[in-house]
Hints:
The protein is α+β, with helices and mostly antiparallel strands. Among the domains are: 49 residues, Uridine Diphospho-n-acetylenolpyruvylglucosamine Reductase, domain 2 (2-Layer Sandwich), CATH 3.30.43; 95 residues, CO dehydrogenase flavoprotein, C-terminal domain (Enolase-like, domain 1), CATH 3.30.390.50. Helix content is 35%, strand content 23%. It is built from twelve helices and twelve strands. It has a five-stranded antiparallel β-sheet. A four-stranded antiparallel β-sheet has the order 9-10-11-12, with helices on both faces. A three-stranded parallel β-sheet has the order 1-3-2, covered by helices on one side. A hairpin with a 2-residue loop joins strand 4 and strand 5.
Amino acid sequence: MYAFDFQRPSSLGDAAKLAANSNAKLLAGGQTLLASMKLRLANPEQLVDLGAIAELAGIKRDGNAIVIGAMTKHADVASGADVKSAIPALADLAGGIGDRQVRAMGTIGGSLANNDPAACYPAAVLALGATVNTNKRKIAADDFFQGLFTTALEEGEVITSVSFPIARKAAYIKFKQPASRFALIGVFVAQTDSGVRVAVTGGGNGVFRHTGLEQALTKSFDPQAAAGVKVDSSGLSADLHASAAYRANLVGVLTQRAVAKALG
């Protein structure tokens, strides 16, 4: 690990000022950043720890939405009473991230800002049509994710919270890569007032929506409707863990299982 300057601001304003430095990195849970620094794959001159900013953590109900602070730990989302009662699929997703140590340290804001192509939270944000709130603006889920480890966040922009609309029905199913526990494929299905949204993670350069599955399930929210949709393997990733064709099959199968789970 290279030498760096460590800062732990107590206010969002101070954190934003420090984050404006192009050589600074924000530290949320640190589950990816610190590992990258140890391997000397990342070399920030300044590390800005957000852990002392109380306003960035917590869960609350706001009308027909659940708002989760950016520094809220995965374990707290998984056990949060408001999340479990309003969007149980989101609590279930958080409870299946990594292992107990990761869930005790990792944060929702850190996961979204990192935007790992096999992370779980992006699927929930995209499928539920959530809004990512920052210190500067509100970003719709469909505009936030922009590919491999890339988001709409600008220099010095800090995620403050995520607002999740409460869906009629929702479920998340993940086929885990056994070593990393990341999603080989993960599918989040949400039945909303405006139709069904299906988000897939682990399949390529980033989370994406599947239009064919959404259209079929909007007409009939039933596993058989999903079974009738052919998932194209072109554009899906292939590696030593799974071929593109295998991943395509998983998308279809997991979507059917997610719908069945959502229906209870």
